[in-house]
């Protein structure tokens, strides 16, 4: 299950990176999504390589990148979804600072028993952002909201951070939050 999940996470990261790749008009949200893909891709690769080996350093590096994907990459995606659904399209500089703040929260909570509650709070915030988008009649949010509720329920019901399907769950979360990407409307000047 770990190997299949790792491969699916890598495929999701590649798709996220392709959809949000740098362009001449590269939005801050797309830059944040691309950054998350760049974190998730080596995490999945290292986990796939570490599966079935006895190398402690490889397992430790894979675990660290997994935690970075879960507790920094996913919160960044959630923050981007919430901001975009509320109509705020921040620059790459702002999202870079937001990632720095999220990483600081991750570093502070990493040794505490509250790290999983931080992730649950982030998942709930993303769900509220999707709900707001659905209430604004955004079709992608209408389609993504039931999937996100399933992601949220599975996190709580399966104690996902310790579950064997963690990589599958992480890939599904990244795919759903990337699918609802919203671009700024062109000004009517």
Describe the structure concisely for a colleague.
With 189 residues, this protein is an all-alpha fold. It has one domain. Helix content is 76%, strand content 0%.
Structure description:
With 189 residues, the chain is mainly α. The chain is 76% helix and 0% strand. The longest helix has 30 residues, at 56-85. It is globular. The model has no long low-confidence stretch (mean pLDDT 86).
Which class of secondary structure composition applies to the elements?
mainly alpha
**Topology order in helix (H) and strand (E) letters:** HHHHHHH
How many helix segments? 7
Distance between the termini: 53 Å
Considering the chains and any ligands shown, give keywords for the structure.
single chain, 189 residues, mainly alpha
Furnish the topology, listing elements before pairings.
Elements: H1 2-19, H2 28-50, H3 56-85, H4 92-109, H5 115-135, H6 139-157, H7 166-179
Helix pairs in contact: 1-2, 1-7, 2-3, 2-4, 3-4, 3-5, 3-7, 5-6, 6-7
